[in-house]
Amino acid sequence: MIIDHWRVHRQWWDAVRSWFPLFSARPLAPVVLSSISGVYGGTPRWYVCSQFLSLSVAWGMVWYVWRRLCGEKAAAFFLSAVYLPSIASTLVFSPGMQHLAATAYVLWAGSLVCHERAMSRQGGWLLLSGLLIFIGMLIYEIFLPLLVLQCLMPLYHAACFKADQSGKLATLGSASPTYLGFDRHTWKSVARTTVPLAVAVLLGLVVQKLIMPSFFPDMSRLTPGGLGMMLRTFLYWVFAVSVQTPILWADGLFRIHEAWDASALAGALLVTISLVLAHSRTTGAGEPLNAQNTARQSGDKPDGSVHLETRSNGEDRSHRNHFATQSCRVGVLRRVCWISAAMSVLLFVLSGSYAAVYGNDNRKLSSLWVAVALAASTYWTGPAHQQSFKRTRWLQVGLCVALLVNATSFLLQRNNYVQSWQAQEIILNTIRRETQRAEVPHGAVLLAAVPPVVPTNHNDECVFTRSWDIASALRIATNDHIADAVTLYPWLLVQGRLMVDGPRLVVDNLWQTDVSQQSVFFIGCELRQSRPANVKDFFARSLGKLPPLTVELRAPCTLVRNDEELLHSVRVATESLNVNPPMSHAARATQWWAEWMRAAVLGKPAVPLQERLFHPTILEQEH
User: Fold this and answer.
1) pLDDT attached to residue 72
2) Using alpha carbons only, what angle is made at residue 348 by residues 344 and 351, rounded to the nearest 5 degrees?
3) What pairs with residue 560 in β-bridges?
4) Burial class of residue 363 in the structure, from the number of CB atoms within 10 Å of its CB (0-12 exposed, 13-18 middle, 19+ buried)
5) Phi, psi angle pair for 553, to nearest 5°
6) Of 278-282, 390-394, 426-430, which range is least confident?
7) Calpha distance 204→212 (Å, rounded)
8) Residue 497: band (very low, low, confident or very high) from pLDDT cuts 50, 70, 90
């Protein structure tokens, strides 16, 4: 479990105000965070349960819509995949801050249901859908790429292909001209379904970029850089999808014995039974192609009725109405899902941030994972022609293998995040005990050389990596005795995120301290696993019991008096302590690629590692 942005306040309104101006661009986000912290306090299990319940509500609504559009097998596979986001795992394992994402996905899923209802019913469903999206924009706009599914719903929803009273189809097959294979009436329907969403998004942007900056600094993520920055963010996204993900999954296969346990195997068995039952319900009823079942749910005719329709002069017109068949509608839906997945790159291009499947920042890829899960599930809808049946079966086998590999990586991350929470508690207790022994004065600043990740690192499952997480955690643990803190570890030096400037220490261009003006102390700890995992842990992991961790105090808490002692402390933290575990394989590949791009493409010479502490430009790249 990731504890990010530790904040617990007794008064709800004080908690809401404390989040500004940080969340001024998302003015409803503090309401969500303050409400859950006010109810759950400092009890992690309630955050976990609430997060799981919120995501279950969201995925349940999507399952309802997907079952109507694609059938039970596709809906069952979607649920099997979406609950295991290995490339966006912090959506699950950061149940505090990611309540924002869970709430946003509940609102988006509700909007999806409203749009689906609006296809076949009159009323204000589209207006309600737009209202939900507007509220979501004021909480967390992570769902934006998925709006493509609603905007283009008339292109694949069965209700838009129903025959009118004259017996002619309302879309393709008419004499009207077509655009990209669809007639003017269909594109008018697309415009009608898009307008409420476009208005909601634009109103959200007005609040973020015009209204809130009138009262607070502009904290909106809609801050794209120049063309060079846009190109870099695009390339990082492509690298994350095409290189980082295979590396992550391959590492999981090499450590498969550390991932699975009794409860995980029971869950896999349950998923297999669900898919088998969904398959038997469709094929057992004589519907191998999933056509008649879905057509009845949508109020449409079975595929066979479409192919049997003929003109009064006897001319077969089934070939002109091919988009009205279930299989072709699903084909359009599949393309829309992949378009939605590709649109997730805009979240990074328009915000000037970099995509990564590792560490806490992989939360930004959650909409990509949802879109990919939806697209992959459409391959579980039966083929339109018998000759493609065998190819579809092999594709489904490949999807099952991919789901198994993905689940292995997710389970490894689950185990590591369980240890991450234990590591945080042990480190906090050690630091609190040592600061009391050293008689650290009230209001001091602490430089903590602590490991950023757990010893069994797989995907950079963080312990303490940012200044705000350890600082807030120590303020709570010491009752505000420690005023501020920052973590120091070798990765900061390797990634160019650390700089010493005389008496000043700057980290991430966001945190700094001055030893000439503040009481600064240094402490160094190393985290170790008491024993390697063995066969006995197969059942113990099911109960969350993993090999215990131990903390070894390597540098006692001492006062940093001047520039020389500051430099010495930073050297110890970045060159001697916590060298292991190294960065994840995906992170190391990204680091190598980024340095090669700097030198080979941008023409910037590499800065020697021993000189990076004094390099005037840090944070050349975000990790």
Assistant:
1) 87
2) 130
3) 520
4) buried
5) -80, 110
6) 278-282
7) 11
8) confident
175 or 48: whose pLDDT is higher? Answer: 48
pLDDT digit string, tens, across residues 434-491: 999 999 999 999 999 999 999 999 999 999 988 888 998 999 889 999 999 999 999 8
In the chain, % of residues over pLDDT 90:
49
d(CA 561, CA 568): 11
**The 3-state secondary structure of 367-397, one letter per residue:** HHHHHHHHHHHHHHCCCCCHHHHHHHHHHHH
Encode burial over 294-303: b for 16+ CB neighbours within 10 A, e otherwise: bbeebebbbb
Residues 117 and 155: beta-carbon distance below 8 Å: no
The interaxial angle of helices 262-283 and 389-437, nearest 10 deg, is: 150
Q: Are strands 444-449 and 482-487 parallel, antiparallel or unpaired?
A: parallel
pLDDT tens digit sequence for 339-392: 999 999 999 999 989 999 999 899 999 999 999 999 999 998 865 555 566 777
User: Could you say which DSSP state residue 64 is in?
Assistant: H
SS3 310: strand
pTM exceeding the 0.70 threshold for the entire prediction? yes
Measured torsion, CA atoms of residues 20, 26, 28, 32, in degrees rounded to the nearest 10: -80
pLDDT (average), residues 328-333: 86
Whether 94 contacts 1, CB under 8 Å: yes
Cα 606-611-613 angle, rounded to 5 deg = 115
Q: How confident is the model at residue 316, as a pLDDT?
A: 43
**Bridge partners, 507 (sequence order):** 498, 511
Nearest Cα neighbor of 18 from 4, 38, 39, 34 is: 34
175 Cβ contact list (under 8 Å, min separation 6): none
Peptide bond into 455 cis (omega under 30): no
Is the distance from CB of 590 to CB of 623 less than 8 angstroms?
yes
Cα distances (angstroms) measured from residue 410 to each of 17, 18, 59, 64: 36, 34, 18, 25
What is the crossing angle of helices 44-70 and 29-40, to 10°? 130
The residues, ordered by sequence, that sit 6+ positions from 470 with a Cβ below 8 Å of its Cβ are 448, 450, 464, 485, 486, 487
Whether residue 21 is preceded by a cis peptide bond, meaning omega within 30 degrees of 0, is: yes
* Residue 152 CB neighbours (<10 A): 20
Q: Residues 478, 432: contact at Cβ < 8 Å?
A: yes
